[in-house]
Amino acid sequence: MRRITKLEPTKVPKPPQKKRVAAYARISKITDRMSNSLSNQVSTYSKMIQDNFQWEYAGVYVDDGISGTAIKRRPDFRRLLADCEAGKIDLILTKSISRFARNTLELLQVVRRLKELDVEVRFEKENISTFSGDGELMLTILASFAQAESQSLSDNIKWKQRKGYAKGIPNGRIPVYGYRWCGNRLKVVPHEAEIVRRIYKSYLDGASRSEIMSWLSAEGIKARSGEFWSSCGLRYLLANEVYVGTLTFQKHFVEDPINKRFRKNRGELPKYVIEHAHEAVIGQAVFDQVQEEYARRMKLGVLANKAVNTSCFTTKIQCGACHRNYLHKVEHNKDGSTWEAWLCASRSRAGKGRKVCPTSKYIPQKKLIECCNEVLGTESFDEQLFLESVEMIVVIGEHELEFHFKDGQMEHVGLAV
User: Fold this and answer.
1) Each residue of 346-399: pLDDT tens digit?
2) 350 FRET partner, CA 20 to 30 A, in 48, 86, 230, 380?
3) ∠ CA(237), CA(238), CA(244), 5° rounding?
4) How far apart are CA 398 and CA 326, in angstroms?
């Protein structure tokens, strides 16, 4: 006969644990009104969580004056997610989807990851919980609206800025060494303007940027940032048309309001050039001469840098595999002699994560000179003849040099193994 036995539970059910609840708040602009709103949010959420006997307070995370279009720019949001990963939070409260994220893709990725961690998110304004059956569908729809709103807001701001540009009104006031902003106009700072003139003169007199940096540092002259001048900072100063009294608006633009990536304006959008916008520090003729000198040095490349020890082979030897130039290597022996050779720049500057050229053989200077004598038909190396005759030497593999002459001819020479 069939018999049924009921087995009574042996474990006493544990009382439900309190949910560890956190809140997230964010504002994108720092104003008195918005700051008060943020303070009210923090106070409200703190009281709401602590007054609920079923909840355990896990903190309020706040990003103040930060856009919601990218997670990487929100430190407290990243800290919130890290605490969720560490198992410290069960529920997140937030005012709305737009406060949590405006980027639809990132929002859904975060919400799905939090669901995997068994962390619920509740959006107060939309009355949505990520644990509800239609939660993700509603999030997708509403987040798309939030992203579209962000795009529309960005377009409106850009339209307003361009209207201002057309009237000669700048958007923001970027610090410029030699000037101070007075309203919407730049006013000359005499002692800084004199430094600018000295920099331009030094450059035209043949000084390199590193040499200019040296005398600026020696005299304790710092940039507007309060730091000593950098090579990039000097390049910006030497190329900035603001010193001839001209302002150019929209030289760069935000490509996408979501990723906030800046791009140089290469004709995609109009530029607004305001001539005689303020008092000039540098004459137009001097400014043009500096631009021509910069172009000349760029064409010469490393040969224009007096700080680099160059030779007739500098920039003349090219790797046939990666097409980079060979660099000069000098080693000093204990007996006082030196050993000179050339090595592909890719191999010479190899580091972690960098691709290394398959060409690994050094070309000793002595062997290089022997090959040059062979193709030039000379017994001793003639540097002037080499410069006048040879356009380029291409290294083929590890055992051959390909000489390209300025008259269009080409000749191969083997390297000893």
Assistant:
1) 775 555 445 567 666 788 888 889 999 998 888 888 888 888 899 999 998 878
2) 230
3) 85
4) 13
CATH number of 19-150: 3.40.50.1390
Alpha helices by DSSP H, 117-189:
135-166
Return contacts of 135-142, CB within 8 angstroms, 24+ apart.
Answer: 136/108, 136/111, 136/112, 139/97, 139/107, 139/108, 139/111, 140/104, 140/108, 142/97
DSSP single-letter state for residue 282: S
Q: To which residue do tokens 């009355």 refer?
A: 127
- How far apart (Å, rounded) are the C-alpha atoms in residues 264 and 24? 35
Closest-CA residue to 201 (of 303, 278, 323, 289): 289
Cβ atoms 154, 200 nearer than 8 A: no
Cα 265 from Cα 251, distance rounded (Å):
5
Residue with the two structure tokens 């923090």: 42
Q: Torsions phi, psi of 304, nearest 5?
A: -85, -15
Segment among 41-45, 315-319, 343-347 with least mean pLDDT: 343-347
Fold match between domain 19-150 and domain 179-304: no
Burial (CB count within 10 angstroms: exposed 0-12, middle 13-18, buried 19+), residue 30 = exposed
Instruction: Measure the CA–CA gap between 403 and 316, rounded to whole angstroms.
Output: 10
* Closest alpha carbon to 96 in 142, 136, 133: 142
Residues in Cβ contact with 204 at an 8 Å cutoff, skipping those fewer than 6 apart: 286, 289, 290, 293
Domain spans, the chain: 19-150, 179-304, 317-414
| Sign (positive or negative) of CA dihedral 221, 222, 227, 232 | negative
Which CATH code is given to the segment(s) 179-304? 3.90.1750.20
The whole-angstrom separation of Cα 114 and Cα 118 is 6
Spatial contact of 393 and 318, defined as CB atoms under 8 Å apart: yes
Sequence-separated (6 or more) residues with CB below 8 Å from residue 318: 324, 325, 326, 392, 393, 394, 395
Q: Mind listing the pLDDT tens digit for each residue in 76-96? A: 999 999 999 999 999 999 988
- SS3 of the chain: helix, strand, coil, percent, to 5: 40, 20, 40
CA distance 317 to 364: 13
